[in-house]
Protein: 2',3'-cyclic-nucleotide 3'-phosphodiesterase
Amino acid sequence: MALGVALWLCPKKNTQLYDKLGTLMSSLNTLFPGQPPRFEPHITITTNIQIDLEHPDQARDDVDRILSASAVALNSLPKNHSNLVTLGKIDSQRKFFKKLYFHVARDPNLVSFARIIRELFVILPSDIEQENIKQNPHLYTKDSHGNTIKRRKLKKHRDDPEPKQFDTSSIQLNATHKAAEWSSNEYDPHLSLVYSDIHPIDNALWRTIKTRVQDYLNIDNCDSEYLVDNGLGWDGGVLKLVLCEGDVNDWITLGSVDVH
Structure:
């Protein structure tokens, strides 16, 4: 599954929850065959954020702009919750990235934040780019894999056609609708504990997993729908843009910003 650049929301380092989750994740990793990759506790707000990675200067500008806007959006949410992120029961799926994870409550503010980020930095730039390809095909070419990419900016000649300008208002409106549908039907906030290809998790392993979760986090029941009574969650935290390509151990943090 292509993830591209993802926006993560992490608990702050050196907090009790961050340390507990990190220790738990390290312990659970030892229960799975091979050497499952290591990663820090986080929930993914969205994947496939549009950043121009081909040009380092532009990429740095994009990262700063997106993180700044994301922090403003997060800090602008109504303060009508104790925790923006509330962990729920532990679960497993066949998928590598959801092998073992905590559900996260769909707090309306969290869902709204994800919808905003998806609209502004995934759907809208992608849709505008697709329209630009239609309107200005001379600005694009194909790479060796057949993908449409922008031509490198060479010295402009007098005879080069001027790029066509087009109205983006309808594209923006459509992006809003797409983001709303995505946040309602597809967004599935969760906190992964282990990435693995093992399937299924047998009963003996499940019992060991649940015992460790309950012991490390000092909770009575990791099957309860929400663990809010145990204080398992956080507000604010750290926003990170992470390039999630290739081996998980090779993922790169492009930038981060603290939010309160």
